[in-house]
Amino acid sequence: MRDQNHLDALRHSAAHLLAAAVMELYPGTKRTIGPSIENGFYYDFEFAEPIADADLKKIEKQMKKIIHTWGEGFVHREVTPDEARREYADNPYKLELIDQFAREGQNLTFYKSGSYEDLCRGGHCEHPKEELKYFKLMSLAGAYWRGDEKNAMLTRIYGTAFSTQAELDAYLHMLEEAKKRDHRKLGKELGLFAFSDLVGPGLPLFTPKGATIRRLLEEYVWDLMRPFGYERVDIPHMAKADLYKTSGHWDKFTDDIFHVSSKKSDEQFVMKPMNCPHHTQIYASEQRSYRDLPLRFSEVTKVYRDENTGQLQGLSRVRSITQDDAHVFCRIDQVKDEARAIYQIVQAFYKTFNMPLDARLSLSDPGQPDKYLGERSVWETSEGMLRELLQEFGVAFEEVQGEAAFYGPKIDFVAKDAIGRPWQLATIQLDFNLPERFQLEYVDEHGEKVRPVMVHRAISGSLERFMGVLIEHYAGAFPLWIAPVQVRVASVSEAHKDAVSQLVQDLKAAGVRAEADVSDATVGAKIRNASKIKIPYTIIFGDKELSGEPLKIRAFGSDDEQTITQADFATHILATSTKQRGV
Questions:
Q1: Which residues pair with 224 in a beta bridge?
Q2: DSSP track, 431-468
Q3: Of 248, 282, 440, 507, which one is least surrounded by beta carbons within 10 A?
Q4: What distance in Å separates the CA atoms of residue 501 and residue 508, rounded to the nearest whole number?
Q5: Quick one: DSSP state of residue 317?
Q6: For residue 538, what are the β-bridge partners?
Q7: 458: closest CA among 299, 334, 333, 303?
Q8: Nearest to 279 by CA among 327, 340, 342, 336
Q9: CB 350 within 8 Å of CB 415
Q10: At what angle do helices 208-225 and 463-473 cross, to 10 degrees?
Q11: Which class for 268: exposed (0-12), middle (13-18), buried (19 or more C-beta within 10 A)?
Q12: Measuring CA to CA, which residue among 375, 357, 453 is closest to residue 411?
């Protein structure tokens, strides 16, 4: 963690440097806060006059000028609340922070480097003049003070900083590559999904091609699960609010739940925000014996979250979320075996996409017990079990306090995509609390009624988000097995159209996802069009092919042609797909 701690300190120091530059260039500006964040830092300001993206170069230039005066590092001094208030008498944002810190009994400290001083808790690099060289301002954004839309809108300046020029260059190159791979742009170009103002924000509509990818992902996860004894269930998309009041979700997430009213009933209903409470009621529908366990309920189904419109982003954050969800009800002595099985599924799934995995052990925060359900002793037991499992798996992991689900700790798997970005996707969650809240039972070998343990698991996370990740991972050029169209057959002229249509029908009959291009475009245009939407194989069908000669196949990304007989082509496609898929 030393490198990350140093990077956080470096970036927080860069936020101070940014504020110093802003105050020199725009003296009437009011400062607020400037933390380090993942991949960088920001500082929020209230400017007297608006600034634009074009001003970032000027601010960055001033930062590079100022840093040469910061040779002595950061010097701190403790101040009284009254001293701090006098320093920021004309800054309501700092005054609010000072009053808060004083009420909480915190020490108030100012940190100074060069001629710049700021209210700060600390956490800076030791030698800013030598260390703080490799930074860049990235963008502007609007941000409400303290994240509350009732407060003033501020100007947030984002930046990033690294320990070396090479690291900064690599990060900036990754961002450029990420722009090219943006799933919102590629999804539209490839015709995979759409959004409609009439349908509503955050509610994606999947085209036949997009729906094909979703179906293939669903089938793949199911094929990986089937050997481990999972069974399909099906639940409605809504429920009485009482279900979520019992589970505890109502109190925790009431602002994120879509409420449904009925003109024929006084009962309160909601669109389901998660599936686990429904699954508990399938379990509770029968008397269970220890011999019945484990029970593994699985389905692919939508949940609905009332996300803020401003936070919606393509497929990454939506209001209708399709989960490949499963819940295992088991005895406590079966937990580790079930978790091992889930880990095997997770490993196989991400290996197929060539996405290496790390893991996080997401723990509760003992200092905030009100955030969680259940007794502390239960949490200590479940957290210990997951820690032992991760050590047994041999996977690299870090422990993160305060990131547990409100009902239990979890293992979050972090997959890296083709350009090195981490994505938290799969999860294994251990839950002693929902069985208690729903009074779930099984009869043990002694005839006693015992609570089962509930294991929540997701493999791809949500299909929407994973599909966005996948589009960017492959830059839209999907492997053959999951490409929505595997082959496009293009006619050379009018004389070849019927034969092309017949070949496409034969390929489809054999299980190949094929389509025809019998338009009047030139052969060159047809090749370019197929390449533009990244179809794995393109066949140009002319007189030689009409006479029965072997097909010449052009693979996406290559100018070379492969030759194969028409009789063998479908077999080749299916065999290659099966090999890539791995199941």
A1: none
A2: ESHHHHHTT--EE-TTS-EEPPEEEEEEEEEEHHHHHH
A3: 282
A4: 11
A5: B
A6: 488, 554
A7: 299
A8: 327
A9: yes
A10: 100
A11: middle
A12: 357
Task: Find residue 79's DSSP bridge partners.
Answer: 108
Share of the chain above pLDDT 90, in %: 79
Alpha carbons within 13 angstroms on the beta-carbon side of residue 259 total 9
Per residue in 91-116, pLDDT (tens digit) is: 999 999 999 999 988 889 999 999 99
**Helix (H, G, I), strand (E, B), or coil: what is residue 511?**
coil
Q: Does the bond joining 294 to the residue before it have cis omega, within 30 degrees of 0?
A: yes
Counting DSSP H helices and E strands in the chain, the numbers are: 19, 28
Asked whether 25 and 58 are in contact (CB, 8 A), the reply is yes
Residues contacting residue 380 through CB under 8 Å, at least 6 positions apart: none
Burial 69-81 (b: 16+ CB within 10 A, else e): ebeebbeeeebee
How many Å apart are CA 179 and CA 305, to the nearest integer?
27
pTM: 0.85
Q: What is the 3-state secondary structure (H, E, C) of 212-251?
A: HHHHHHHHHHHHHHHHHCCEECCCCCEEEHHHHHHHCHHH
Residue with tokens 């100007």: 155
410-414: Cβ within 8 A, 24+ apart: 410/361, 410/362, 410/386, 410/456, 411/339, 411/359, 411/360, 411/361, 411/362, 411/386, 412/359, 412/360, 412/362, 413/346, 413/350, 413/357, 413/358, 413/359, 414/357, 414/358, 414/359, 414/360
The 10s digit of each residue's pLDDT in 126-161 is: 899 999 999 999 999 999 998 888 899 999 999 999
Residues facing 119 on adjacent strands? 110
Looking at the DSSP bridge assignments, the partners of residue 540 are: 490
Distance between CA atoms of residues 16 and 58, nearest Å: 16
Nearest CA to 369 out of 355, 358, 380 is that of 380
% of the chain beyond a pLDDT of 70: 99
What's the DSSP call for residue 565?
-
All residues at 6 or more sequence positions from 563 whose CB lies less than 8 Å from its CB, including other chains: 550, 551, 552, 553
E strands, 129-277, in order = 134-144, 153-162, 193-194, 205-206, 231-232, 238-240, 259-260, 269-271
Report the length, in residues, of the chain: 583
Give yes or no for a contact between 181 and 423, defined as CB atoms under 8 angstroms apart: no
Give the chain's domains with CATH numbers: 2-176 (3.30.980.10), 187-466 (3.30.930.10), 487-581 (3.40.50.800)
- Supply the residues annotated as catalytic: 276, 305, 323, 325, 327, 410, 456
Q: Which residues contact 508 (CB under 8 A, 6 or more apart)?
A: 514
- Tokens describing residue 220: 């793949």
Structural contact between residues 31 and 118, judged by C-beta atoms closer than 8 angstroms: yes
Are the C-beta atoms of 33 and 149 separated by less than 8 Å? no
Largest CA distance in the chain: 93
Do the beta carbons of residue 431 and residue 456 sit within 8 Å?
yes
DSSP annotation of 536: S
pLDDT for 283-341, tens place per residue?
A: 999 999 999 999 999 999 999 999 888 788 999 999 999 999 999 999 999 999 999 99
Segment (H or E) for 469: helix 463-473
HEC per residue, 361-397: EEECCCCCHHHCCCCHHHHHHHHHHHHHHHHHHCCCE
